[in-house]
Amino acid sequence: MTDQAQLLQLEKDMFTAIRTRDRQMLERILDERFELRVPGNPPVDRAGFIAAILAIPGTILSVESEDLEARIYGDVGVLLGRQRARVQMEDGTTVADLGAFTDIALKRGGQWRMVLAHSVTLPQ
Known about the structure:
This protein is α+β, with helices and mostly antiparallel strands. Helix content is 27%, strand content 52%. The chain is built from three helices and six strands. Strands 2-1-6-5-4-3 form a six-stranded mixed beta sheet. Helix 1 (3-20) packs antiparallel against helix 2. The longest helix has 18 residues, at 3-20. The model has no long low-confidence stretch (mean pLDDT 96).
């Protein structure tokens, strides 16, 4: 499998891990140095990100990417795209979210691991 294909699979696995709230998969995907950056909010480390995913209220109906691109710069991979998510709240309402993201991964020991995620909310 090419590096580009591995990176695209890493991102798909990330969306699956979020949708299914799979702690073990998130821990495999995210490097110990992982950080989430969202403009206007403080940085979130790996443990905080995983805790936030596990604490999302309601049922995660979908998390998917659009226009996903993978670029390779040696042992650095950059993933770009849009993320669309839908969550059904406990009262039955559905909340939708659309954001643009840039995720950075490093290749160590033949494996890609995510080290940085940057996300910006987009208008629906």
